[in-house]
Automatic annotation (TrEMBL):
This is Adenosylmethionine-8-amino-7-oxononanoate aminotransferase. It comes from Acidocella aminolytica 101 = DSM 11237. GO terms for molecular function: adenosylmethionine-8-amino-7-oxononanoate transaminase activity; pyridoxal phosphate binding. InterPro entries: Aminotrans_3, Aminotrans_3_PPA_site, BioA, PyrdxlP-dep_Trfase, PyrdxlP-dep_Trfase_major, PyrdxlP-dep_Trfase_small. One of its GO terms (cellular component) is cytoplasm. It catalyses: (8S)-8-amino-7-oxononanoate + S-adenosyl-L-methionine = S-adenosyl-4-methylsulfanyl-2-oxobutanoate + (7R,8S)-7,8-diammoniononanoate. Its cofactor is pyridoxal 5'-phosphate. GO terms for biological process: biotin biosynthetic process. SUPFAM superfamilies: PLP-dependent transferases. It comes from the Bacteria. The modification N6-(pyridoxal phosphate)lysine is found at residue 266. Its EC number is 2.6.1.62. Homodimer. The record marks 15 as: Participates in the substrate recognition with KAPA and in a stacking interaction with the adenine ring of SAM.
Length: 417
């Protein structure tokens, strides 16, 4: 395969030590919950391409919508011109959101959606003549993206804060207020520091890329109360949890808490196209209205509200209405709980946990992650352990038989770890 060998001298892979990184496996096509390799092997996909492909790959409804949009117009700039896919999508996203979360700002990646959320929170204060409230309170174990601004609100290790000292803006990162001790230190921190803060940001219910760590709805209620008390903007980063992954359409529904800003991406287009959205309340939006151009939101990506992406997202939203996605998520959840439970008694296993369509087996440690990946591959599954966890975030359309292949492979391989 000449494209692979030639290109290998030129591509730069994510988070990879390129000196030792193995050649990735060439993919010929995808279908449903399967990845078909160039050599003909078919893998059951346990990750759904970083949980984007929630409707399975190549869903005909999304493919048709994108093909139709491509024929009419791949994209036009969002400044001064309007196109139906984006306007329709913003209306639909606002309708899905509770309260007065009514204003949608489109971008092209999750990280940038979070950057925009930060800008909204900070500039909103500035527009109201409040200076000095520029810090964002984030939590240990959190992950919000790879750009400079978002690295600065990731877990210090994940965000490589020490490596990039001097480059990153400095933001406080504290433990999530989960138990008596962390609640007390959280409250003391806010009492001391709230005057420097614009916002609190959290991944609701599940800290995804930080190791699939769960917390209860009461944590989100605590954050809402604290944000209200100190006049802070509460940002829920639903880029991982949104669109049924935790069992409800959005994770915050389980806590009955309404944030001030929500960020969405990943499964927004069902894995078809890079698109993200930052959704803010009317109240925040109104702080940008004035007679001066200086209070306008200062952001505007070139490919903002990409028309093909918006067409894909509208089609993906249709599927939540026409196909029983949340019922499927509940069935996946029950099956994951049942079929991963036996892993708990394996010697190397520290914890087994399931929420919605997320199944996690946490190990005491994974000695040889690449070796473990190879063993899983031999079982015909695409599962990528990271840190100390082996996890499943499959397409919500995966069949029970396919899901059993994934959990079976995990059991077989982890039994020998
Ligand atoms: C993936 C992710 C991001 C970053 O999204 P990108 O599209 O990779 O920039 C931000 N927040 C959360 C919770 C994520 O899971």
């Amino acid at each position: 395969m000449t494209w692979l060998e030639e290109g290998w001298r030129h591509v730069w892979l994510p988070y990879a030590q390129m000196q030792t990184a193995p050649l990735p496996m060439p993919v010929a096509r995808t279908q449903g919950a399967r990845i078909i390799l160039e050599d003909g092997r078919e893998l059951i996909d346990g990750i759904a391409s970083w949980w984007t492909a929630c409707h399975g790959y190549n869903h005909p409804h999304i493919s048709e919508a994108v093909a139709k949009q491509l024929e009419a117009m791949p994209h036009v700039m969002f400044g001064g011109l309007a196109h139906e896919p984006a306007y329709r999508l913003s209306t639909r996203l606002a309708a899905l959101m509770p309260g007065d979360l009514n204003r949608v700002f489109f971008t092209d990646s999750g990280s940038v959606a979070v950057e925009v959320a930060i800008k909204i929170a900070v500039q909103s204060r500035l527009n109201q003549g409040v200076r000095g409230r520029t810090k964002i309170l984030a939590f240990s174990g959190g992950y919000h993206g790879d750009t400079i601004g978002t690295m600065a609100i990731c877990d210090p290790e994940e965000g490589m804060h020490s490596l990039f000292t001097g480059l990153l803006p400095e933001n406080p990162v504290v433990p999530l207020p989960k138990d008596a001790a962390s609640v007390a230190s959280f409250e003391a921190f806010l009492e001391r520091e709230h005057k420097n803060l614009a916002a609190i940001i959290v991944e609701p219910l599940v800290q995804g890329a930080g190791g699939m760590v769960f917390h209860g709805p009461e944590v989100l209620q605590r954050l809402r109360a604290a944000a209200d008390h100190y006049g802070l903007t509460l940002i829920f980063d639903e880029i991982f949890t949104g669109f049924g992954r935790t069992g409800t359409m959005f994770a915050f529904e389980q806590a009955r808490v309404v944030p001030d800003i929500v960020t969405l991406s990943k499964a927004l287009t069902g894995g078809t196209s890079p698109l993200a959205a930052t959704i803010a309340t009317d109240r925040l939006f109104e702080t940008f209205l004035s007679d001066s151009p200086m209070t306008a939101l200062m952001h505007g990506p070139t490919y903002m509200a990409h028309a093909l992406g918006c067409a894909a997202a509208n089609a993906a939203l249709d599927l939540f209405e026409t196909e029983p996605r949340l019922t499927q998520a509940a069935a996946i959840s029950a099956q994951l709980a049942r079929e991963l439970e036996p892993c708990r008694s394996l010697p190397g296993v520290k914890d087994v946990r399931v929420m919605g369509a997320i199944g996690v087996v946490q190990m005491h440690n994974i000695k040889d992650p690449p070796g473990l990946r190879q063993k899983l591959l031999k079982e015909g599954v695409w599962i990528r352990p990271f840190r100390d966890i082996v996890y499943l975030t499959p397409a919500l359309t995966i069949t029970p038989e396919e899901l059993s292949r994934l959990t079976g492979a995990m059991q077989t391989v982890l039994a020998k770890e």
